[in-house]
Amino acid sequence: MSTYWDSLWYYAGMKMAVEQIRRQIPTEEFDYQALSDCLKDYARPRDRISDLIKSGVIVRVKKGLYIFGSDYSRGPYSRELLANLMYGPSYVSLDYALGYYALIPERVENRDLRHLREEPLFSDAGGPFHLLGSSP
């Protein structure tokens, strides 16, 4: 049976974990290895990661790839970097790059991502990416 002091102890530990992670991870996007390095002093780091996901501190984008939750992020995360980490090596299409830097007057709606593997279209918290195969 959980008491008030147990829950207070739990949330104090969670706050310390969040502060430690934010100090050690400078970017908004990070992988399991970086997260486990931050939590190496805990007896059960996997349980702590599960707790961080359940509480919304971090968001699991894909197995082993995370971003900070909206309440804990320092700024926007890079959708292009996430796409590259998920389907690397890859690069954004020329149309998307030209639209991103406002070198063409049209607004680019689709984020086209070129890579060497054939994968289906995916959509996540970062928005839809159309994956296009590329010949080596």
Structural description of this entry:
This protein is of the alpha+beta class and 136 residues long. It has five helices and seven strands, in the order αβααββαβαβββ. A four-stranded mixed beta sheet has the order 4-5-7-6. It is elongated and about 60 Å long. The protein starts with a helix and ends with a strand. The mean pLDDT is 78.
Main β-sheet, spatial strand arrangement:
4-5-7-6
Which spans of ≥5 residues are poorly predicted at pLDDT below 50? none
Structural class: alpha+beta
Order of helices and strands: HEHHEEHEHEEE
Mean pLDDT across the residues is: 78
> Rounded to an integer, what's the Rg over CA atoms?
18 Å
- The number of helices is 5
Features of the shown structure:
4-stranded mixed β-sheet, 136 residues, single chain, alpha+beta
